[in-house]
Design a protein that fits this description.
A two-stranded antiparallel ribbon has the order 1-2. 70% of the residues lie in helices and 2% in strands. Among the domains are: 91 residues, Serine Threonine Protein Phosphatase 5, Tetratricopeptide repeat (Alpha Horseshoe), CATH 1.25.40; 125 residues, no CATH class. It has 26 helices and four strands. Strand 3 and strand 4 form a beta hairpin. The chain has 598 residues and is mainly α.
Length: 598
């Protein structure tokens, strides 16, 4: 503000003060002081229009600090002393402390008299002006913070600006944080997000790289920032830089043997952006193998499975997602309704089926026993009874695992049965309130072990399917290279060689023409004799040759193998069924061995 403008404001303030319009006079004088904190006359007249003695004293003291020879200010202070009596410290006016330099300022000041820092901020939500000594916006009640916290106050304020979509104001606020404390943590990290929102791509990458260097002593935090840096590269279309970061993190996981799901999620997004659905699906499946609670990833994978025709597995995944609340559960229900309904298995899960299966294995054991003993029934012993019992148990486990899985006992069912009142009375023990029993502790351990085993098996399953796909791709590439090799080209060029042309030229010789006419009736006779046999073994068909058909059959079988390998559901029930099959086979073999050996 120029001197002429300040002089006009001063005259307007004096005129308003004399006419009794103190409010307008204060506004004019405040503008002058805001433009020139050392304006002597403005401070003097401001002391005249303020109401409280403390505010008047502060203004007069400011006048004397500017001009110690000002008589009017001295007289004003003496008059205040007579009015107030002895000056006390507890009646001193409240001062506004500047958060940048700590200088006390008048409550009505707009800028610090020492560093010229503004003594107010703009509310991140509504944009209203909030005094620096207020922790809450009076208009929208947004909690801003305590300015006495210094750098923490400005850091939190910058985060609020960024959340409200004001990255430029956030960056300006974080500059004050760094002025107060240059090594304040996380400033570079959040500044990268603000630069990205402000479309300053290069600065966003540089800021994130600086944040990664700052957390070099915290590997886990550095890993998270590296993933975010790779995501920034991906958002900016810099796929090569993102791929390098992902490969480095994959190598670190392999060296430490501690794979984490977040890396595979990001790599799934990476290949999804590149349009490689096969690789994206592989990494999503790896992430789910490590963490089954990634519902959004599971839903994305389900859409992939539907697009590729794996309806059975997609239906299995959707049946798990439909129980979730929210949008994912609702969309899963819609997709299930659009698909063909699953074949119900309730009709197979009857105890009659289980008993018939047990009976078949028991009869097999009895027949084996009859064959082994013959007519000498005196040779029956305890081992034969144990063998028949083993056949009964083995038949139950095999039948329940293969035909009626709902009748298969699980550890959870056994634990529930053991905790019934009748079993507690039979065991003569009461359950103490708040204390878990041995069965419950065993059940907890079993669930944890089952989850770990399921995760490990899923990882190996996914890696095996991925390995088979890579093997198929390499075999296809090798076949293409072989078809273009020199050997194949030379074989194809043989009909054009001199030898084959010379042999073809023999057909024009009179001797070979006479020989062909002589052998032609013999050839027709052989053709009539062999045509029925050859037609049955290798019937003539139009279109593709037998080698092309064989190659297509092999390709279909390989794709079917990959599909079945990817459709294997290693759930907790699946593990129970696998263990039951192994146990049933061992029991049947044990029964057979007891009958044959004893």
């Amino acid at each position: 503000m120029d001197r002429g403008r300040m002089q006009l404001l001063l005259q307007e303030a004096i005129r308003s003060a004399k006419s009794g319009n103190s409010s307008w006079a204060r506004d004019c004088l405040t503008q002058i002081i805001q433009a020139d904190p050392h304006h002597e006359q403005a401070w003097l007249w401001l002391s005249a229009v303020l109401e409280t003695p403390a505010e008047k004293r502060y203004c007069l003291e400011r006048v004397l600090s500017i001009n110690p020879q000002n008589k009017k200010a001295e007289e004003g202070l003496r008059w205040l002393d007579k009015q107030e009596g002895v000056e006390r410290e507890d009646t001193a006016p409240k001062r506004t402390l500047c958060p940048m330099c700590g200088e006390p300022n008048a409550p009505t000041a707009f800028r610090c008299v020492n560093c010229n820092q503004e003594l107010f901020v703009r509310c991140p939500r509504c944009g209203e002006r909030v005094d620096i000594d207020r922790s809450t916006c009076a208009h929208c009640k947004l909690e801003i913070g305590d300015s006495s916290d210094g750098p923490a106050y400005f850091f939190h304020l910058g985060e609020l600006y960024l959340q409200q979509g004001k990255p430029k104001m956030a960056l300006d606020t974080w500059d004050k944080t760094l002025l107060l404390k240059p090594d304040y943590p996380r400033v570079a990290e959040v500044a990268a997000e603000a630069f990205l929102a402000n479309n300053q791509r290069d600065l966003a990458v540089q800021s994130m790289q600086r944040a990664i260097e700052e957390v070099a002593d915290d590997p886990e935090k550095q890993r998270q920032l590296l993933l975010r840096l790779a995501a920034i590269h991906r958002e900016l279309g810099q796929m090569d830089e993102a791929h390098k970061i992902y490969e480095d993190l994959l190598r670190q996981d392999k060296e430490s043997k501690t794979p984490q799901a977040d890396l595979y999620i990001e790599m799934g997004h990476f290949y999804q952006d590149r349009g490689d659905r096969e690789a994206s699906r592989y990494y999503y499946e790896m992430a789910l193998a490590l963490d089954e609670e990634l519902h959004d990833v599971r839903f994305t994978l389900t859409r992939y499975l539907l697009d590729e025709g794996y309806e059975l597995r997609a239906l299995s995944e959707l049946s798990r997602l439909q129980e979730l609340p929210g949008e994912i559960g609702a969309q899963s229900k819609v997709l299930i309704e659009q698909m063909r309904p699953p074949v119900p298995e309730g009709f197979r899960n009857r105890w009659a089926e289980t008993f018939r299966g047990i009976g078949r294995y028991f009869l097999a054991g009895v027949l084996l026993l009859i064959i082994s003993v013959g007519q000498d029934w005196q040779l029956l012993n305890v081992w034969d009874l144990l063998a028949l019992t083993a056949f009964l148990l083995g038949g139950y486990f095999l039948t329940a695992a293969v035909i009626t899985p709902k009748n298969l006992p699980t550890f959870e069912h056994l634990a529930d049965l053991a905790e019934t009142p009748m079993m507690l009375r039979l065991r003569r023990e009461g359950k103490t309130a708040g204390q878990s029993s041995s069965f419950q502790r065993f059940l907890s351990w079993q669930k944890k072990s089952a989850r770990q085993l399921t995760s490990t098996l899923r990882i190996w399953q996914t890696r095996l399917a991925r390995g088979l796909q890579q093997l198929a791709a390499r075999l296809s590439q090798s076949w293409q290279k072989f078809k273009g090799s020199r050997l194949v080209l030379r074989i194809r060029a043989l009909p054009q060689s001199r030898f084959f042309r010379a042999v073809a030229g023999l057909r024009q010789k009179a001797f070979f023409q006479w020989l062909g006419r002589t052998l032609q009736p013999v050839g027709r006779l052989l053709q009539r004799l062999l045509e029925p046999v050859v037609g049955r073994i290798m019937p003539r068909r139009g279109g593709e040759s037998i080698f092309q058909q064989l190659r297509q059959a092999i390709g279909k079988g390989f794709r079917r193998l990959l599909e079945r390998a990817s459709q294997v559901e290693l759930s907790e029930m699946q593990l129970y069924r696998m263990m039951a099959v192994l146990l049933g086979i061992l029991l049947v073999l044990l029964g057979s061995g007891l009958i044959l050996l004893f």
